[in-house]
Amino acid sequence: MVYLHQNHVMHRDIKGHNILLTEQANIKLVDFGVSSHLASSWGRRNTSVGTPYWMAPEVIACEQQLDYSYDVRCDAWSLGITAIELADGEPPLSDIHPMRALFQIPRNPPPTLDRPVEWTMEFNDFIAECLVKDFEQRPTARELLQHPFIKAVPHNPEEVRRELVLLQNDLRKKNQMIQKDPETTIKGGALKADRRTKRTPLWMDDLACLERLTEEVIVDHMERRYQTDQIYTYMGDILIAVNPFKELGVYGDKESRQYRGMVKSENPPHIFAMADNAYHNMLHQKQQQCIVISGESGAGKTESANFLLKQLVTLGKAPNRNLEDKILQVNPIMEAFGNAKTGINDNSSRFGKYLDLTYTRLGKVTGAKISVYLLEQSRVVRQAEGEQNFHIFYYMHDGLEAEDKLMQYCLDKSKRDKHRYLAGSNWSKSKSQANVEQFNKVVEGFKSLGFRDDELDSVYRILAAVINLGDVDFYQTIDKDNMEQAAVKNVEQIKVVSELLGIDPSDLTEALTSNSVVTKGEIITRNNTVEEAMCTRDAMAKAMYGRLFDWIVNNINRLLSFCRIV
């Protein structure tokens, strides 16, 4: 380094990978691909180049601050990082993405050894001298030669060299020589793994940091991030999520811990970061927080809500673990009863949902309350081509069949694709198995929340009644006054629905084929036409499902509210 700097050369990429040891243990510094020849020893440069983990803060700053510059002391920083690399085996921040390291190096305090006590005070101090963040105060290479750690090296290091030769030979015999992959470097605002690959541009985590905020630039930026599986991007306080339509494996316990109590800039954008931000704002500001999830169908709102709830419950660890499990069962049940397959989304939410989570002043979750809006009840009786009814109908049918309980609820395996309200469902063996698994999850969720067996039996009976009600047909007759009148064609179907609902068949028939109005205190009853009877049948099915949905929501709120401490 001293020799290079005396000859006006700034290396800019000092790292373990560029230090070679010959068979005679002579040390060579190689790879001058990003080095610069200066006009003088104190010449400056303003190009942001190097290998991210070893780059000095001032070199990184030049990427954004175009009027900024640095001198040869950037090599001293890289030397300090290399010293840590040689001691610990990896440079600091090596466990995160190179681009993330570029954001953290200028913001974090100078790194140190993982276990400083295992090394001499001189070595620790040498590293600290190299890693002074203000490069104007950082020592030069010549000044570092006077450090006690360097002065302790024998003037004629032949003994050290012999030891290195013996060590090399021993490792070579045991075939234990370590081959490391080349590190990613940065040049011109782009990442590059090696000379043969194309440079990968750096894509900002926050769109608010872009120099040009045009629609074209934003869309291109989002697309580039999406192509590298970076589906989350900040826009100030807003998090944009692009549905990857595949499993990314970024929602496990490791990621959950990674985002707890961290500043937003310390990690890549993530839904867990939004949860953590809202949670800590609630604790510190003592104010209620609200997160709005918005997007078109298929954008991933349902999954985002699930991940958000999971992290918020994890952050507010309840004294009673059972409560956490109960709260996490809410979304799967709501999805089963409120979601359906549409033309563009296999799990489209057909209702609006507002979920309240309550916490103690110390941040422990104590309960939840859910409110629902605008359930698409028309889907119960009519679905567009290629779409399906609410998931729960298919889950229950296949789930009860697997338990050999279909007949108990007046359903027939051979007629499952002939029901009017379930037409066009495209049943298959694989789908049936998946439905059975989902049904078991829903039942488990109900029981975890505290629903009784008789309540679940009532739910199944109402759902089965809705399915069977849709199969009631009518024909036209003439009454005694020579007026058109609807009559039930398949009376046995009326008996089935009545049995499931526990009502008198004649009352159900009357409700479907006639209607009554009160005028001036007098009840006037008139007969329905076939068309009116069909509309009444469908309206009854929609009302039954809507009331069932509301009852489930109210019961969930009741079961989760007893332990709420506000």
Automatic annotation (TrEMBL):
A GO BP entry: regulation of actin filament length
Q: Which GO terms describe its cellular component?
A: cell projection; myosin complex
Question: Which Gene Ontology terms cover its molecular function?
Answer: actin binding; ATP binding; microfilament motor activity; protein serine/threonine kinase activity
Keyword Membrane listed? The answer is: no
Q: Name one Pfam family in it.
A: Pkinase
Say yes or no: keyword Kinase present: no
Keywords (alphabetical) are: Actin-binding, ATP-binding, Cell projection, Cytoplasm, Cytoskeleton, Motor protein, Myosin, Nucleotide-binding, Repeat
Which family does the UniProt entry place this protein in? Belongs to the TRAFAC class myosin-kinesin ATPase superfamily. Myosin family.
Q: What is the recorded name of this protein?
A: Myosin-IIIa
Source organism: Portunus trituberculatus
Q: Which gene encodes it?
A: MYO3A_0
